[in-house]
Design goal:
It is a single chain. The chain has helices spanning 3-37, 69-72, 83-115, 121-129, 136-147, 152-160, 173-196, 202-209, 214-225, 227-242, 246-251, 259-269, 273-302, and strands at 52-55, 58-61. The protein is mainly α. It folds into 2 domains: 1-63, no CATH class; 70-302, Orthogonal Bundle (MetI-like fold). A two-stranded antiparallel ribbon has the order 1-2.
């Protein structure tokens, strides 16, 4: 076998492994989820059940796309006024605010990491990743103790005389955003750091030599060059934040119903697997379709 053939086979293997991974762990589970979402509750929810059934001389299509209709209308209050639409809106709102807060906090931190002495970078990166060594549930439960009416934060503020009565922070929007920002902040810092640490500092020196101020050089050079890290960090934060379940359950109130909680209720309380699957499919499409359109626009712009 020639060297050219070996290189071609190796290239196909390297490219094929991630495609195989996506096929097995993303495309196939999504197709199973899609199949369950159009299954009639009166029949088996086995995703490998044939879509066609023969009854005598005729064929019957064993699908029920009407499972998606209750997500958007309840038949009386009109289109869009359902608990599911409200859950989607709440999830997108919290995910968007979480992404903005993580970007506002994470960008300066990543910038500092990239510009600090190389000798202390490993220690600072270790501090960023240190929370992952602790149980996720323990970290969220700790925030309950911090934000409670008689928690650590209120006791400190009362002791300092800043407030006279305990502040209501737990089970509010504040506790939700604090918990989600805390959990997803490392996912914003690490991609930004990976981009900023590779930036050529001579570009900033050239900008200063040409009369640009520090802020102008930062805005016109550093920010555009770190765009890839910003996009990657926002994706890593926004996508899992939309489907978050644990944080709304522990820190959110009764009014903070996100789509992850609704899917849980449909699965384990109502035992309605088709509707829960339909909710999940719509949630994935809400995320994947805009991303696909963005990258298509980006490729056309680059071309």
């Amino acid at each position: 076998m020639s060297m050219k053939t070996l290189l071609f086979s190796g290239r196909r293997l390297v490219i094929g492994v991630p495609y195989f991974w996506l096929l097995v762990f993303f495309a196939l589970p999504f197709l199973i989820l899609l199949r369950i979402s159009i299954t009639d509750m009166g029949t088996s929810i086995d995703p490998f059940t044939p879509l066609l059934d023969r009854a005598g001389d005729s064929w019957r299509l064993l699908v029920k796309p009407q499972n998606y209709l209750p997500l958007f209308t309840d038949g009386s209050s009109g289109f869009g006024d359902t608990i599911y639409i409200q859950a989607y809106q709440t999830s997108l709102k919290y995910a968007a605010f979480t992404t903005l807060f993580c970007l506002a906090i994470g960008y300066p931190f990543a910038y500092f990491l990239a510009r600090c002495q190389p000798s202390i970078r490993p220690a600072l990166l270790l501090l960023v990743m240190l929370p992952f060594w602790t149980s996720f549930l323990l970290r969220i439960s700790a925030w309950k103790g911090i934000l409670a009416d008689q928690g650590v934060l209120n006791n400190v503020l009362l002791w300092l005389g800043v407030i006279e009565q305990p502040l209501v922070m737990l089970y509010t929007d504040v506790s939700m955003l604090v918990g989600m920002t805390y959990v997803y902040l490392p996912f914003m810092i690490l991609p930004l750091y990976a981009v900023l640490v590779k930036m050529d500092m001579r570009l900033l020196e050239a900008a200063h030599d040409l009369g640009a101020s520090r802020f102008k050089a930062f805005w016109l050079i550093t920010v555009p060059l770190s765009k890839a890290g910003i996009v990657a960090g926002c994706m890593l934060v926004f996508i899992p934040a939309v489907g978050e379940f644990v944080i709304p359950s522990l820190l959110g109130g009764a009014d903070n119903i996100m789509v992850g909680r609704v899917v849980w209720d449909e699965l384990f309380s109502s035992n309605n697997w088709p509707r829960a699957s339909a909710l999940s499919v719509v949630m994935m499409l809400l995320i994947l379709v805009p991303l696909a359109l963005y990258y298509r626009y980006k490729d056309r712009t680059a071309a």
